[in-house]
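Dear colleagues,

As part of the handover before I leave the project, I'm documenting each prediction I ran so the next person doesn't have to rerun anything. This entry is a single chain, and its sequence is reproduced below.
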Amino acid sequence: MDKYWADFPILLAVAESGSLTAAGESLGVSQPTAGRRVRALENYFGAPLLTKEGGRLVPTVFGETVLIRIRRMQEEADAIERARAGADQSLAGTVTLSGTEGIGDMWLPYVLQDFHQKHPETQIEVIVDQRPVNLARREADIAIRWIGPGNQNSLIGRKVISAGFGLYATQSYIQKHGRPLLPEDLCKHDGVMASIGSTSNFWPDIMDTPQRRPKNIAFRSNSFQATSNAVMAGYGIGLLANFKRPEMPTTVEQILPDLDFSEDLWVVAHEDLRKTPRIRTVYDFIVKALLQDRAYFETGTASKFSHQL
């Protein structure tokens, strides 16, 4: 059995992703290698562990029984790794931050320059990802998340600020299709929407009715930046963050400006790691920076950390 322990994470990754290719990419092995290692486990157990359904690899009944034990092993291995990291009391080392587009790629690089000057011994790695990374598995040490801290176990989070959003369109689109004067007018227009994670269409909850949704989605993307560019290209009306406003040309304007939309921004860490000095130092710095830049996120005024934002 010992020779197969290294194959268990591959089986788990395949079961979670539904794909040998995706599992291989996440673990840094090739698709043929992932397939060969899964087959070796099936030969050892003498029973199939995965089957194909709807184009995805899913566990068999026996495979799920095995995976229950593998997940327990993975949780214990993760706990050991967190305990090791928690024992490190030095400020020297790497802290990994996770943030979505607009946060990780636009805001954090400017904000962290100040941190770098004060704490050059701490290296910061930023992951720009729309999905909620797994903090228990140390895919990141700290996550800046929208809406809430997430449902992973043993997370500690703080709701720091609420960021403002608005509906935007180009003047050329408005001239061609007319200006919506009421929320119910949106059903006559084309929409630009982001599909992020479990959110099929990024759109305000209070506007999610047939009368308040665009009649046609002219452009959809899993990228906030692509969505913003599509609005600026004139595809239709889209929900954009106010804090991206400085990059917008003057030909783009807010639609129905009296409507007030907001989403909470949380800073989250695993409880086993937040007491680690360098993680705690970065955590506190990010919280303070968000509070200092509250107006930037709420209304789109200039950031306190860069004239370019």
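The radius of gyration is 23 Å. DSSP finds nine helices and eleven strands in the chain.

All the best with the project,
I.
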